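#struct-queue
[09:14] JT: dropping the first one here, sequence first, then the structure tokens:
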Amino acid sequence: MKLILLNKPYNVMCQFSAHPTRETLADYLDIPNIYPAGRLDADSEGLILLTDDGKLQNRISHPDHKQAKTYLVQVEGIPTETSLKKLSEPLDLGDFVTQHCIAKHIHPPAWLWDRDPPIRQRATIPTSWLCIVLSEGKNRQVRRMTAAVGLPTLRLIRTSIGSFSLESHPLLPGEWQEVEM
């Protein structure tokens, strides 16, 4: 059984099949019969777990198992106590209501890499960083949550899934490491 940690770069598709305009996981890994346990959008970066074991893939990615996932989120604007409280509590996004989560205003970690290409900068609009920990992970959920409280996401980086993190397994974008279970 293999378990691979990959720091997925920005603008890479979370698939092995060819894409007409973007890089895919196949451009970074040449290991047969492994599959991502969960996904990240092309415009998101960070930790992806890959495995060759279907049962492990299900334990990692299925919502019933509620693996905590940590995201660092650069947003436009400065969060207020009210906006952080709204993010932490169940939030109605129209087609579903989020579960409770942890949402904190943070300083960006010193180990964080620069994004290529860099995010847009506006001279008149400040940016800030949030740390959001979810036990669910619906499509574009973090981006939708921050937008719902008036803090549009500029950069989204998943830094941990369960006990695996980029802080304890430092990998630059595109780097991967096989780990023991």
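[09:21] JT: and here's the second one, same format:
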Amino acid sequence: MQVLNARTLGPRTLVDMRIAHTSDWHIGKKLMGRDRGEEFKEVLAEIARICRDEGVELLLVAGDVFDTYTPSAEAEEIFYSSVKAIAETCAVLIISGNHDDYVRLTAAQALSEELNIYTVGNNLKALDCKKRGNCYPVQSEGGYAVFENSRGERVYINTLPYPNEARFKEGKSDESFADKMKRWIDFGERGKPDGMPSVFLSHIFAAGGTSGDSEREIDLGGARAVGLDLFPKCDYCALGHLHGRQKLGNNIYYSGAIMRFTFDEAGQDKGINVFDITAEGLQNFKIVQLSSCKKLVRLQANSVEAGIGLLNLNEGAIAELTLNLKTPLSPSELGDLRACENLYSLKMSVDSELASGYSAENEGKSSSLLFSEYYSSRFGTEVPSELLELFLSLTEEE
């Protein structure tokens, strides 16, 4: 690896350490009820290749490894096998996010640490400091760890998993959320030596961040947003929680989710951040794109035939199709659409002449009710159960 900006700080010469930042894996998350297990495997295998090809020494995972507190056995198998493959190249440091059960996530710590995989939950248990691989923790207490590489270069990591009172087992008090955040962040700063390069690793909603449809349980009103003035002085802030890649301030980064989870992310690129932490700060920052996560596309057509044509043109992508129709779909047409494996979501827009006065009065109604009412208004009879079932199979309702 190229040596950058070497200088002496006390008895130790610090040069550079190559780090990668990723977050929000959400292993096990489905789209419109469909499993994406193979795609998760491919994307995580690509992250392993990136770490190898880029010479990454430490991978930081900023929370939300799983999509639910109780992931399926398949989701856990994908996680364990994938992170083991990554750890064959570099050390892995993971914190829990709001979707993770931190007790469950850290349960295998005694085994995972032997593979150079370290997880930090809200119990803030210190890491086991032992030489493993080419990068490993040499000092750790609750809320922080110092990692050292084979050249003796060190970086200080302040680790703050998704923070709230319940997870830290704190009772109610008059202390403001901002004061609590400052206290929690300062706790992870208490062991930092002067002059040592440092990273803040957390799963939080930073003030000014932009969220999308796929984030849940985020306080958008601002009361639980973390002000940028509360962030510690460090070389790089590696955040998770928001699924769109973004930068706030000078050094606060959301790497973004590794896959596109909702159709409002259709145009988003996905990747991981790779950079060097040096004695002079952040160097050689770049985003390495993830090519194995499937594209999401939003398509529109004025007929079933045209819609199927668009779906065939986007065969490698996951599609949401909106049909602008003047007549209702027949069972055979719905069957033809259902045969398109890349069609995950079907929406229908009724001709404006037929839908005069229709939109406002139907605001908030379910797709099944709207479809049933439309069919009844057009044909004076209830929609056949078989047709309704076919329609619902191509919408988000199950």
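[09:30] RK: nice, looked through the second one.
[09:31] RK: The first strand starts at residue 7 and ends at 9.
[09:31] JT: good to know. The longest helix spans residues 37-53.
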